[in-house]
Amino acid sequence: MVNVRGPQVLGSINTTDTYPALCQLQSRHRAQRVIEGELQPPLITRKHIVSLPWDNRYKDYVVNAGLYGVHQVGHIQTDSELISALVERWRQETHTFHLPVGEMTVTLQDVAVLLGLRVDGNALCGRTDLDWSAVVTNLLGRDVDPTTFRNKSKVAIKMSWLRNNFSTCPENADDKTVQQYARAYLLMLVGSVLFTDHSGDCISAIYLPLFEDFNEAGKYSWASGVLAFLYRELCGATDPKRKQFGGPVLLLQLWSWERFPMGRPRTRRNCEVPQLGVGDLERRPPLGHRWWFYREYAGHITCRVLKSYRKEINDLNDGKVIWLPYEDKMHLLPPICSENPSLWRTTAPLIHFWIVEVYNPGRVSRQFNHYQAVPPSLGDTMDELHKIINGAGKNWVDTHHEHLQAWEDREDKCLVDQRPYDHSKHDEYLRWFSGASILYLRSPRDVPNTDISNEARKITADIVAMCSAVTDQQTKACALDLLYKCKEAIKLIVQPVESDDDPGPSSRPASKRARN
């Protein structure tokens, strides 16, 4: 047990006190509203089903564009409550999640491995000062009409227009026509899964010129562009006034499932599990594909609410976090998932058209199995750049020239410290972090009644003793199942009962519970 000095508990701090060093923006963070007792509803997550049918004639074009992995992952149901709980832990100051176990974040490695997106390539940037009606006509082969763009917008294409015009590619279509349909599919794919806006029914046309030449599209660093968009959404969502969360919601959810027990689903019974590591090496699916068949969640529905997730995050410890989830799976994945691993630790800025975000892999060195030193003083996370909003009529290549040059120098900006992670030296980092940040998020509503809490622990201890005394295996399995159900019910009204490092039935399959 690491002995940390004075961990900060969000909810025990007087709001007039000075916030910890890493939480200087706490007063305008949605988590602050939680500790003040204000009910914060979960964010509305914006992620769409790719509603254009797949046609195998698109395959080569989508592969060449570097987005086949995203197509392979498929549609996965969004857990808005889990996303909201993670947003409460995100810090604009560091671009990391602040957790009881330290700082963690979504990295370029995660984007490459989970979605199969290229890291090494041109920054995802271009011009938005184009005649978008002409672009649509030229690249999609359709004349623009009043139903093409959203009202008062010259760039937001309605998804209904795409569906009405590109649902079925003609059987006798020539190559030019198939390419137009493939571009429409790619536009729907990136607009529905990677760069979802808050409108709910439109996709920006700014991505369409990227697909004019499919081979050139494959030369972009889609991974860095997606990560920039995610960071911007996370930073914006910490504003308590924000109601929606867009962008690569799927990426954030898969990242959480790979590393944490809360909300992690289980497979349906009699469901055939897709095999990784089979088929053509170049076109194998990325790791995120393994989650598409997980359609059911273990435990009661009340386990998947924001309050419950908040408690589970408070209860995280080293034994519940999978720090290196990919190391035994990389050989099963396509080469694109492991290309240029040194760039996973570059400190070059992340760029997506109007978005520029700081990337701080040194703050999460443990995620790369490297020595986690106490990070230097807070750097600039470009708060001024957060004020830049998207809009047509900009040449972002000129606007972000300095940052684009920094991305060009990405190989020279990689971290060089190759010392391996050493858990025996991790205490120093945790002592620093516990005093510099807020480790536990607790609302006044979550503070337990001491008498009830003590009685609940006594009841749980009695049930554990009774289960231990049972010798018949079938009866014991039923008793343990009952124990975990009681434990979940108790967690809804008091602090989580500490008994072991087991993540509980909200995350564990019933078959595993029965075996223990």
Question: What can you see in these coordinates?
Answer:
This protein is mainly alpha-helical. It folds into two domains: 8-423, no CATH class; 448-515, no CATH class. The protein contains 18 helices and eleven strands. It has helices at residues 30-35, 59-64, 68-73, 80-87, 108-115, 132-140, 159-166, 175-194, 214-217, 222-237, 249-259, 306-314, 396-399, 401-408, 426-436, 450-469, 473-491, 510-515; strands at residues 8-10, 44-45, 90-91, 96-99, 102-104, 156-158, 202-204, 244-245, 350-352, 355-357, 438-441. The strands form five sheets. The chain has a three-stranded antiparallel sheet. Strand 4 (96-99) and strand 5 form a beta hairpin. Helix 4 packs across helix 12 and helix 16 runs antiparallel to helix 17 (473-491). The chain is globular and about 75 Å long.
Keywords:
11 strands, disordered N terminus, three-stranded antiparallel beta sheet, two-stranded parallel ribbon, 35% helix, mainly alpha, disordered C terminus, 516 residues, 2 domains, 18 helices
Number of strands: 11
What is the mean pLDDT?
84
Strands of the biggest beta sheet: in what spatial order? 3-4-5
Gross morphology: globular
Question: How would you classify the helix and strand content by structural class?
Answer: mainly alpha
SSE arrangement, N to C: EHEHHHEEEHHEHHEHHEHHEEHHHEHHH
Q: Roughly what fraction of the amino acids lie in strands?
A: 5-15%
Tell me about the largest β-sheet: 3 strands, antiparallel
List unreliable stretches of 5+ residues.
1-6, 9-17, 298-302, 494-516
Give me the number of helical elements: 18
Helical percentage = 25-40%
Please report the distance between the alpha carbons of the first and last residues.
Answer: 24 Å
Rg value? 24 Å
